[in-house]
Amino acid sequence: MGVHPDTGGLVHSTGSGLACPDWPLCYGMFFPPMVGNIRFEHSHRLIAAAVGLLTAVTAALVLKRERPALKPLALLAIAAIVLQIVLGGLTVIYRLPDLVSTAHLAVGTAFFSLLVVLCVRTASAPVVQTERQTRTLILSATAMVYIQMVLGALVRHTESGLACPDIPYCQGEWLKPIATPAGLHLVHRFGSIAVLAVVAAVYLACRPL
Prior knowledge:
Elements: H1 3-13, H2 38-65, H3 71-93, H4 98-121, H5 132-157, H6 181-206
């Protein structure tokens, strides 16, 4: 199911977000001719529908067979995929608003992470136990990576990617007002340094001795 976010990135990269101007149909059709950018946008919708179906099946199996502690995760997965589909529709209906498009990626990434957790928690192999301090470090790194991804989406959707044409400065300065494209770009740039540091710390904490 990890292919779904990837196809979403392809839709944006090819400028296909409004190739189907209506939703949930495409030019009033369930299966429009897969030509031009329609093939990217509508393929993304079809994959989303398949992911939704597989999520429902997965949730049903978890609710029926797994221990009670995992049932809230299954229900949360259903809620996440429904929200993701709604956000996808709003993205088209309101013509690619920056915040909705960013939320679409944020929920999609969180949904994928939730599936990974479900996969690990339902695996037959025992989960390796770690010290509390290490677990806190891993959770912190996970949160920072997630925030950095969302910031990256916001930079992209607001077209702030080239707001700072120079490195390491931004327009010859170290700091810019955060509420500007250059400021947002810098926050994302500094965030990448912080993420690199915390991921390196996780590696050092978890590496075999």
